[in-house]
Amino acid sequence: FAEQYANYIGHYFPGTDRYQLYPLPRLMIPDPIHPGKMLSLPSAPNELALDAHGMVWFTEFNADALGRLDPRTGRMQHYPLSAKRSVQTLYPYGMNVDPEGRVWFTEMGSNQIGYLSPATGQMRFFTLPELTISPMEIASDTRRSIWVTVFTVSLLLRLDPTTGTFTSYYAPSLMKEKGGLYGLLITPIGDLWVTMLAENALAHLDVAANRFTYYHIPMKESSPFGVAMGTNQTLWFTALDKIGMLRP
Predict the structure, then answer these.
(1) Rounded to 5 degrees, what are φ and ψ at 172?
(2) Residue among 193, 185, 184, 197 nearest 224 (CA)
(3) Are 111 and 131 contacting, i.e. CB atoms less than 8 angstroms apart?
């Protein structure tokens, strides 16, 4: 797990009730409030994913970088996302490793998504089709397509990495309050699920019909965020102060 403000990657061992912590470096930037002084910021690890070799990849929200941790040795490597090092500009957020081993990420501050090829260290970026949107979660499906949720509007994007073509799927708003999508889950059989804060719902996308089916949460203002699948196709999701379960 990633502890953004405490600035470490953590590993919990249920069998022994033990934690192993891997601290990240801190950043020094000019203090905007006190001229001539420096301000210390956490690298702010935000989201992580494991690759096929057991390496832990994560986004560094403040450091505008990706990180890789080898849990066997504790060694970390950092991959800046721009040629000119920056801080709190790109805001890398979501993280996913696709079946080919490419490490995908979203950038909230640049209207881009991209991937890193670990074998070569090369990166490729894709500019999203709409301006001023905030890409959040990212995931790959069994057909090698890349999916991205958008927080500022109710939009789910699909990218064909070979052609660089995006396809947009808009989720109709049923409530007066406008809000976007956050959590993203692609099941082993290819079903797509998202969480919708303003709708207080989980939603399933029928890709062929371009139709969303909503499952509203009985408790008001639950703020569903993350979503994952357990056994028997049960969905589990985080809410504001609870964990929820849905059996579709």
Answers:
(1) -60, 140
(2) 197
(3) yes
Report the pLDDT value the prediction gives residue 132, as an integer from 0 to 100. Answer: 63
Q: What does the block give as tokens for 146?
A: 């890349």
Answer yes or no: are the C-beta atoms of 221 and 240 closer than 8 Å.
yes
End-to-end alpha carbon distance in the chain: 27
* Cβ atoms of 240 and 223 closer than 8 Å: yes
In order of 4, 64, 214, the CA distances from 239 in angstroms are 19, 28, 16
pLDDT tens track for 23-75: 999 999 998 888 999 999 999 999 999 999 999 999 999 999 999 999 999 99
Phi, psi of 233 (to 5 degrees): 60, 25
- What's the chain's average pLDDT? 93
Inter-residue contact 82 to 90 (CB < 8 Å): yes
Measured over the CA atoms of residue 194, residue 55, residue 110 and residue 131, the dihedral's sign is: negative
- Could you give the CA distance from residue 168 to residue 247 in angstroms, rounded to a whole number? 27
| Dist. CA 184–CA 95, nearest whole Å | 11
| Angle, CA 234 vertex, CA 228 and CA 238 arms, to 5° | 40
Distance CA 135, CA 137 (A): 7
Q: Is 74 left (phi over 0), alpha (psi -120 to 50) or beta?
A: left
**Burial of 108 from C-beta contacts in 10 A (0-12 / 13-18 / 19+):** buried
